[in-house]
Amino acid sequence: MDNSVKAATHSVYSSYWNKTRTVKVTKRTVFKHFDELKHRYTGARKVFKPGQKIKVRAAGEFIGWTLPSKPGSRYWWINTKKTSNWMEEYHKVYKARWNGNVYHSSNGSTFRIKSLKRVSVYSFDSDEHSQPTETVLVLSGRLTNNGKTITPAKWLDDNMDIYPSKTSEDHMIFGCSDSDSLLKDDNNYHDDLEEATDPLPKDYYTDFSIILDGDDTDKKAASYTFSDISDNHVDIPVTNDSVTVDDED
């Protein structure tokens, strides 16, 4: 698997480069040695060959790139060309795997399954108090994002197939939250259901719940398989819960 993406992912003028970033050199590149105190270049050079991984950032007041130096250092290594055609952005690729009920994705994001519940929702205003107004399958978890801004619902849609265990992906039931569900009016679920569709920036996590779509037969399964594109999978059993909602509030 290729561990990098082209530098064109971020413009050379992007604030992304204001921080030190790891890149992979794609062609012979020379950095000059600059004495900041004397404000002049010295005769020294630093040459990098294709395939080397180095750390760089935008050179600030200079046009080009600088290698990171120790705080207070008077010396900078400078490449005065403001272009990315000599390198590629480098992003570490992790081994995608399950560790118990925690999924570690290839970009370093993690998804922890907290619970999978079949929730019977009763309404105070229902004439049939002995029967639930609806029964929904609710997945609750924690997503820690290590990539671009994304909603937990979209992350699940992009990364997970969810289907009744001992069947196949043809029975996949994952879908977005049902906005008409009474469950969103229950205090125990309301906030987490909202979190499922809120954008989650990089290096943040959120606890969320989402209602899984599917036909009535699929929703009755005792457990469900969570599988990524490489068939790393885990089976999660279903527990039962019930809530009573006053939908007139």
Features:
eight-stranded antiparallel β-sheet, elongated, mainly beta, six-stranded mixed β-sheet, 17 strands, 249 residues, 2 helices
What does this protein look like?
With 249 residues, the chain is mainly beta. 7% of the residues lie in helices and 41% in strands. It has 2 helices and 17 strands. The strands form 3 sheets. It has an 8-stranded antiparallel β-sheet, with no helix packed on it. β10 and β11 form a beta hairpin. It starts with a strand and ends with a strand. Mean pLDDT is 86; it is low at 1-5.
Question: What is the strand and helix layout of this fold?
Answer:
Elements: E1 4-6, E2 21-25, E3 29-35, E4 40-48, E5 53-58, E6 65-67, E7 75-79, E8 87-90, E9 97-99, E10 102-104, E11 110-123, E12 134-144, H1 152-159, E13 161-164, H2 187-195, E14 205-212, E15 223-227, E16 233-237, E17 239-245
Parallel strand pairs: 11-17
Antiparallel strand pairs: 1-8, 2-5, 2-8, 3-4, 3-7, 5-6, 6-7, 9-10, 10-11, 11-12, 12-14, 13-15, 15-16
Q: Estimate the mean pLDDT confidence.
A: 86
Please state how the strands of the largest beta sheet are arranged side by side.
Answer: 1-8-2-5-6-7-3-4
N- to C-terminal distance:
53 Å
Question: Could you estimate the helical fraction of the residues in percent?
Answer: under 10%
What is the molecular shape?
elongated
- What structural class results from the helix and strand content? mainly beta
Order of helices and strands: EEEEEEEEEEEEHEHEEEE
| Fraction in beta strands | 35-45%
Radius of gyration in whole Å, from Cα? 26 Å
Biggest sheet character:
8 strands, antiparallel
Instruction: Provide a count of the helices.
Output: 2
Question: In terms of quaternary structure, what is this?
Answer: single chain
